[in-house]
Design brief:
The termini are close together. β6 and β7 (78-82) form a beta hairpin. The protein has 254 residues and is α+β, with helices and mostly antiparallel strands. The chain folds into two domains: 6-84 and 221-253, Phosphorylase Kinase, domain 1 (2-Layer Sandwich); 85-206, 2-Layer Sandwich (D-amino Acid Aminotransferase, Chain A, domain 1). The strands form four sheets. The chain has a five-stranded antiparallel sheet. Strands 11-10-9-12-15 form a five-stranded antiparallel sheet. Strands 8-13-14 form a three-stranded antiparallel sheet, covered by helices on one side. It has helices spanning 46-63, 99-105, 134-139, 145-167, 216-219, 225-236, and strands at 6-9, 13-17, 23-28, 31-34, 39-42, 70-73, 78-82, 85-86, 89-96, 112-122, 131-132, 171-178, 180-185, 188-193, 202-206. The radius of gyration is 18 Å and the shape is globular. It binds thymidine-5'-phosphate. Thymidine-5'-phosphate binds at residues 92, 98-101, 129, 175-177, 201-203.
Length: 254
C-alpha cells in the first residue's frame, strides 16, 4: 500500500494515484464508523466484500446506461476507478421509513413510503453532514440546477433497478446513499456515479423476516455483522456457496 502516492483517506476507503493519468486506485478497508465517526470498529473481511459487491452493482448499473467511475477490480481489496471531482453532496434515496427519517418525524421504522423520497446532505464531517435543499446546493455553487436534474434522474433510475435486483434475491432495498462526481472530457463535463454501493451505505432487509443485512447491525450492536455482508454477497452470487473463507482474505494480491 505504501509504494503509491495516497491521494485521500476516508473512513472506509483510501484513494491512491492510479497507473494512468485520470485514474485512481480505490482501496477498501475493514474499518467501520457510525454516527459521524463517534463509533469506530472493524468488520473483518468487510473491505473484501464491499469491493466485490460494489464492483458487481456498478457493473450492472453500467449495463443499463448509468455512467460510473468504476473501471475494473484489481484484486481482493482494490479497484481501478476514474478520477472524478466529487460533488460534496450525499444523495439519499428512501423507499421505506427507517433511520434518520423515522427519528426526525417520530415515525415507526418499516412503513413503505407512497413514493420514493430523495434527500440531499452536505458532505462535511465537521458539521455532521447537514441536510440541505436544492436552494442551498445551487446558491452555494456545489451543483447547478441542471446537475441536480441529472442527479435526480440517475438516482431514481438506480433506485428502480436496484430495488428489482435486490427483490430478486429476497431483499428489500430500504434506502441508500449515492455520491456523484464530475469527469472532464475535451471541452465537456459529465456526471458519473462514484464512491461505492455496498451494505455500508444501503439498508437491506430480508424480504420475509425483515432481518437487517447491512451496517445497521454495526451501528446498533446487533452482532453477526460480517455474516450479514457475506449473506448479501452470497445472494448476489458473488460469494461461492460453501466457501465463506473466500471473502475472508485480507491479503492484497498484487
Ligand atoms: P440515515 O437514515 O441515517 O439518514 O441513512 C440513510 C441511508 O444513507 C442509509 O442507507 C445509510 C446511508 N448513509 C451513508 O451511507 N452515510 C452516512 O453518513 C449516513 C448518515 C447514511
Amino acid at each position: 500500500m505504501s509504494r503509491r502516492k495516497q491521494i485521500y483517506e476516508g473512513k472506509a476507503k483510501v484513494m491512491f494515484e492510479g497507473p494512468e493519468p485520470g485514474t485512481l486506485v480505490q482501496y477498501f478497508k475493514d474499518d467501520a464508523t457510525a454516527f459521524n465517526n463517534q463509533k469506530k470498529g472493524t468488520i473483518t473481511g468487510k473491505g473484501v466484500l464491499n469491493n466485490r459487491i460494489s464492483e458487481y452493482l456498478m457493473m450492472r448499473l453500467a449495463e443499463i446506461g448509468i455512467p460510473t467511475h468504476f473501471i475494473r477490480r484489481l484484486n481482493m481489496r482494490e479497484q481501478l476507478v476514474r478520477q472524478v471531482e466529487i460533488i460534496p453532496i450525499e444523495v439519499v434515496v428512501r423507499n421505506i421509513i427507517a433511520g434518520s427519517l423515522a427519528k426526525r418525524f417520530g415515525m415507526e421504522e418499516g412503513g413503505a413510503l407512497p413514493r420514493s423520497i430523495v434527500e440531499y446532505y452536505y458532505k462535511k464531517d465537521e458539521l455532521g453532514d447537514p441536510m440541505v435543499s436544492e436552494e442551498h446546493i445551487t446558491c452555494f455553487g456545489w451543483a447547478t440546477t441542471q446537475d441536480l436534474d441529472d442527479i435526480m434522474q440517475m438516482s431514481l433510475r438506480i433506485n428502480d433497478f436496484l430495488t428489482g435486483l435486490f427483490l430478486g434475491i429476497g431483499i428489500k432495498l430500504v434506502d441508500f446513499k449515492l455520491e456523484f462526481g464530475r469527469v472532464y472530457e475535451n471541452d465537456s463535463m459529465r456526471l458519473v456515479l462514484a464512491d461505492e454501493i455496498s451494505p455500508d451505505n444501503c439498508r437491506l432487509w430480508d424480504l420475509k423476516t425483515n432481518e437487517k443485512l447491512d451496517k445497521d447491525r454495526f451501528r446498533r450492536d446487533l452482532g453477526r455483522v460480517e455474516e450479514a455482508y457475506q449473506e448479501v454477497a452470497r445472494r448476489l452470487g458473488i460469494l461461492p456457496e460453501g466457501a465463506p473463507g473466500d471473502a475472508k482474505g485480507t491479503e492484497t494480491v498484487q
